[in-house]
Specification:
Elements lengths: L1 H11 L31 E11 L5 E11 L5 E9 L6 E8 L8 E4 L8 E12 L4 E10 L4 E2 L3 E2 L6 E7 L11 E6 L7 E3 L4 E3 L2 E7 L10 E7 L5 E13 L4 E12 L3 E2 L5 H7 L12 E5 L4 E7 L7 E5 L4 E5 L10 E11 L4 E3 L7 E6 L10 E14 L2 E7 L5 E7 L8 E12 L6 E7 L7 H21 L10
Parallel strand pairs: 1-11, 9-18, 16-26
Antiparallel strand pairs: 1-2, 2-7, 3-6, 4-7, 5-6, 8-10, 10-15, 11-14, 12-15, 13-14, 16-17, 17-23, 19-22, 20-23, 21-22, 24-25, 25-30, 26-29, 27-30, 28-29
Length: 485
């Protein structure tokens, strides 16, 4: 089990934010390998730390606000955040910002990977080295997927579902902490079990601390909670998302292919369809996935919803001047441990997403969401997201920018009907993505020569001419057996 987690770390956690100046011909930078006895230099101390853990969705969201102080005699710019080897393979969306000064996130990377090290580190590089005795307030945000476990593991079809979460009341840190506090936010006030620590309960919030005594670096205080979560724990092991740009048709075609699973409690008995149908009249809370709500951009049209069997008619599309919403109902309720794979797609007006640069160099700028898909109150997590942007044939000098950490970037060629050299395709791969990435855009710039726009019509014209010439040539052949007169 441990080596599976280590493999996941090696494959998934090279978080790199690509800017518009990136050259796709250059390989992504790899992480720095350090010895298994590595310890971050003790050049900082945490003066005051507040950790907020949100358990209202089917994955863990954490925000750590910490005031750090340089206790060294020289300016320092590298701050380390530790994670256990069993957890780091599920960490995603790791960002560090200056809480008091709005601006872009700081550069972060995974700096250690060793199969025998129990702890891995994210390294944050501050924009400016912090002077001795100076302080800086950091806001560290990330989410952890697939770390909540149902307890009990099997329940009845109409029973409540409870999730178990194990953590440390002391925030894991590579530096000593003078004062700290941990807050847990639950979806409901029903928390039957809380082991470890002495939390202060206030509605659906637990507070551990404040701890005013010095907590040394690496100190942990194990605790766990079990709380009600009678909702589906929706997780997509894989999402394949294709965005196809057509200049001739003025269309932006989007298709998404999902491999969904419910990570909630399993059924302890066989599924009872009669009981399920009867419960739909009053629709009680359930751990099964009944429907998915997919908000689309205003102006979207021609949606479709299919699965492995074929077209799924249990869907509804509502569109007006203010919103466009696609409501999906799977063929069957997806209970804990069950899986459902399907695909959806729609078209949109390209003019709403594409702009032509008026600079002397020219070019086009495409701005699309990195992630769309379902928006659910219980949240949706993605183990792996593969995004393909299929540009028109002849597009070149492709560059892009996104805030979503990527593990792989490829530029390939995709050939479709009546193509000659094929369409330039930008393929981006991300791991451990949460539905919060819906608000993060993907900006793609490329050059599309004027002559490339006529490549397809010329190809079609020459193809038709070739057919007529071939037919004429075959008609002129003499296939008779006898002698010519």
């Amino acid at each position: 089990m441990r080596y599976d987690s280590l493999l996941a770390v090696c494959v998934t956690l090279f978080p790199i934010t690509i800017s518009g100046d990136s050259n796709l011909s250059e390989p992504l930078s790899s992480q720095q390998i350090l010895p298994n006895n590595f310890k971050p230099p003790q050049v900082f101390q945490n003066v005051n730390l507040l950790r907020n853990t949100n358990l209202e969705k089917g994955y863990v969201r954490e925000t750590v606000n910490v005031v750090i102080e340089n206790i060294d005699t020289k300016p320092q710019s590298e701050y380390y955040v530790p994670f256990s080897v069993d957890v780091i393979g599920n960490v995603g969306g790791f960002e560090v910002r200056d809480k008091k000064t709005p601006g872009p996130s700081f550069k972060t990377d995974l700096v250690e990977y060793d199969p025998y090290s129990p702890t891995q580190f994210f390294r944050t590089t501050l924009p400016q080295p912090l002077s001795p005795k100076s302080q800086l307030t950091l806001s560290i945000t990330y989410h952890i997927l697939s770390t909540l476990t149902p307890l009990p593991f099997k329940i009845g079809q109409n029973d409540k579902q409870y999730l178990h979460y194990a953590f440390s009341t002391y925030t894991p840190s590579a530096y000593p902490t003078l004062k700290q506090k941990t807050k847990l936010k639950f979806p409901t006030p029903e928390v039957p079990d809380a082991i470890g620590g002495s939390p202060e309960r206030q509605g659906s919030t637990f507070t551990y601390g404040p701890y005013n005594d010095l907590v040394p670096a690496g100190a942990l205080e194990p605790a766990s909670v079990r709380y009600e979560f009678t909702k589906p724990v929706i997780h997509a092991t894989l999402l394949e998302r294709d965005i196809e740009v057509s200049h001739w048709g003025g269309n932006l075609a989007t298709e998404e292919r999902y491999w969904l699973t419910n990570q909630g409690a399993h059924l302890k008995a066989n599924f009872n369809r009669v009981q399920w149908a009867a419960s739909q009249y009053y629709k009680p809370a359930t751990s099964a996935l009944r429907e998915l709500n997919v908000p689309l951009k205003v102006g979207s049209l021609n949606p479709y919803f299919t699965d492995d069997i074929g077209n799924v008619s249990t869907s509804r599309f509502r569109s007006n001047k203010r919103e466009a919403n696609l409501e999906l109902k799977p063929r069957y309720p997806v209970f804990g441990g069950w899986k459902y794979s399907f695909r959806i797609g729609w078209d949109a007006d390209l003019a709403s997403f594409l702009r032509v640069l008026k600079s002397p160099q020219g070019g086009h700028v495409l701005k699309v969401p990195f992630l769309e898909g379902p928006r659910m109150g219980e949240g949706v997590s993605y183990g792996k997201v593969e995004l393909q942007v299929i540009l028109p044939e002849g597009a070149k000098n492709v560059k892009f920018e996104t805030e979503v950490p990527l593990v792989r970037v490829e530029e390939t060629v995709r050939r479709t009907f009546m193509d000659t050299v094929g369409r330039t395709t930008l393929k981006l791969t991300a791991m451990n993505v949460a539905d919060e990435a819906r608000d993060k855009p993907l900006i793609v710039t490329y050059h599309y020569p004027f002559s490339a726009a006529f490549r397809k019509p010329v190809t079609i014209f020459l193809g038709i001419v070739a057919v007529f010439v071939t037919a004429w040539g075959i008609g002129r052949l003499d296939a008779s057996i006898g002698k010519q007169k």
